[in-house]
Write a structure and sequence with these properties.
binds 2-acetamido-2-deoxy-beta-D-glucopyranose; eleven-stranded mixed beta sheet; alpha/beta; disordered N terminus; Rossmann fold; 16 strands; single chain; 493 residues; serine-type carboxypeptidase activity; disulfide bond; signal; Peptidase_S10
């Protein structure tokens, strides 16, 4: 931080300063004035602001960059992406593995920020990116840019990375990884593929890409769609009789009911699961009077969309979560993907507990501190501002290509998530038919079994996190930091 303040007045000065003083890139993006709600000292440098990826359209992607608290020059740089599509990566920043815990202020007003001892910035430099344009704090001056899809999102994010590494030259030689969860199961491999194509064709600066991680990620309609029934049976949520009936009439094809009797048994399965919290079957459901009142006005929605989860834990897990993934009855198929606000048939989503994020990110002083657009552009956890096409199909060919080329991959699953159940991720990783080098075994944290893993040839690892819901670092922050740091360092998990 100790740069002359002149450097922060105008981007031109900033550039000059960085040339003269050698070193810190993009100093105008540094959070020198602190952050509203945070009273302490930053454990490392933080930067935030826009990268303009299309000057003529005024298309700007917003990022928050947290420098590693260990060894910034050696530690990997990780790009983090939340899913949706349409959800902001501030979800990860605020509720999962960011540098702060946000304590909502029940009396109104801004949340209080505390340091998060399990922040992923303990072991990595991490970029939280709002993507595509229209999501979170990212925007375009051309409305037409909000019509987007997998292909465009991947190429825009690649353009972002190239410009970002130009601005943060001192991080160009660090190992680089891409990570994300839920619908980012599509963003991560498709972006990785763009990055590798860029490396192959000599795009500069060369990104030192090493691998990627996906948590409870959307991958393939057949594998993901077939995952629910075996999950529900294994977890004791449906009876043996129903399991036998549904398996024999559907003949294993649950994602696309083959005939009437299969459809009938699938409806029975859904009835048994309806009142569960799909993001964590162990968490109670949220039945606020408001939720019940609203839900009765919107009968088109299955019950499980209306009553989502609740927890007693004060800071780490929200009462309500939504929009980080596709609802489980409809695996992601090709074509337009309805966004959560569209599914809910209203602008907001009822009874959400995303107050901390929403009040903080829509505050004028916070926007100013973050170098973000004015607060007349509303931040939403998951937006309906964009229209999104799933236009790159199954992700399996991307995973095959990337792992065959030597890029490392960690596919992890909170094993109590019913939204993208582990059974699908376990099945598709196995379907690649790579040799098993580290046979299914428990992995440990604090002397306890934290989950299970199977290691394959080509540096592909499938790992579960025992007792975790959809957003693993939110439910199991200690265990998440443990496997994350071991995997990044190339150590045995
Ligand atoms: C901020 O820190 C100061 C000095 O340590 C303390 O007096 C004050 O109460 C703190 N404010 C909040 C909101 O924590
Ligand atoms: C970071 O790691 C490098 C290489 O191991 C070492 O030379 C350097 O001193 C370390 N820096 C810090 C701040 O620990
Ligand atoms: C369709 O339904 C019958 C039961 O009526 C079942 O035995 C059959 O295997 C089902 N599946 C297919 C693929 O035809
Ligand atoms: C991966 O994709 C690239 C680009 O399409 C292709 O040239 C390459 O042969 C593929 N590699 C593998 C191992 O599939
Ligand atoms: C696995 O990753 C390590 C470290 O990046 C690399 O040296 C090795 O070649 C990779 N193995 C395969 C089979 O790709």
């Amino acid at each position: 931080m100790g740069k002359p303040s002149l450097c922060n007045l105008w981007p031109g000065f900033a550039l000059l300063c960085s040339l003269l003083l050698g070193g810190e890139a993009a100093p105008e993006k540094a959070l020198i004035g602190g952050l509203p709600g945070f009273n302490g000292t930053f454990p490392s440098k933080h930067y935030s602001g826009y990268v303009t990826i299309d000057e003529s359209h005024g298309k700007n992607l917003f990022y928050y960059f947290v420098v590693s608290e260990s060894n910034a020059s050696e530690d990997p740089v990780v790009l983090w992406l939340n899913g949706g599509p349409g959800c902001s990566s501030f979800d990860g920043f605020i509720y999962e593995h960011g540098p702060f815990h946000f304590e909502a202020n029940r009396g109104g007003g801004l949340p209080t920020l505390h340091l998060n001892p399990y922040s992923w910035s303990k072991v990595s430099n991490i970029i939280y990116l709002d993507s595509p344009a229209g999501v979170g704090l990212s925007y375009s001056e051309k409305e037409e840019d909000y019509q987007t899809g997998d292909q465009k999102t991947a190429s825009d994010t690649h353009a972002f990375l190239i410009k970002w590494f130009e601005q943060y030259q001192e991080f160009q030689s660090n190992p680089f990884y891409i990570a994300g969860e839920s619908y980012a199961g599509v963003y991560v491999p498709t972006l990785a593929y763009e990055v590798v194509k860029g490396i192959d064709s000599g795009v500069k600066p060369t990104i030192n890409f090493k691998g990627y991680m996906v948590g409870n990620g959307v991958t393939d309609p057949e594998f993901d769609g077939n995952a629910l029934v075996p999950f529900a049976h294994g977890m004791g949520l449906i009876s043996d009789d129903l399991y036998q009936a549904v398996s024999s009439s559907c003949e294993g094809s649950y994602w696309n009911p083959v005939n009437e009797s299969c459809g009938k048994f699938l409806s029975k399965v859904n009835e048994d699961l309806d009142d569960l919290n799909i993001y964590d079957i162990l968490e109670p459901c949220y039945h606020s009077p408001e939720a019940i009142e609203r839900s009765s006005t919107n009968v088109r929605l299955p019950l499980s969309f209306r009553k989502l989860g609740e927890t007693e834990r004060p800071l780490s897990v929200r009462k309500r979560m939504f929009g980080r993934a596709w609802p489980f009855r409809a695996p992601v198929r090709d074509g337009n993907v309805p966004l959560w606000p569209q599914l809910m048939d209203r602008n907001g989503v009822p009874c959400t507990d995303d107050e901390a994020a929403t009040s903080w990110l829509n505050n004028k002083a916070v926007r100013k501190a973050l170098h973000a657009i004015e607060e007349s552009f509303t931040w939403e956890l998951c937006t309906g501002r964009i229209s999104y096409d799933h236009d790159l199909g199954s992700m399996i060919r991307f995973h095959k290509n990337l792992t065959a080329r030597g890029y490392r991959a960690l596919i992890f699953s909170g094993d109590h998530d019913m939204c993208v159940p582990f059974t699908g991720s376990e099945a598709w990783t196995r379907s690649l038919k790579y040799a098993i080098l580290d046979e299914w075994r428990p992995w440990l944290f604090g002397g306890q079994v934290a989950g299970y893993l199977q290691g394959y040839d080509h540096n592909l690892t499938f790992l579960t996190v025992k007792g975790s819901g959809h957003t693993v670092p939110e439910y199991k922050p200690r265990e998440a930091l443990a496997f994350y740091s071991r995997w990044l360092a190339g150590r045995r998990i």
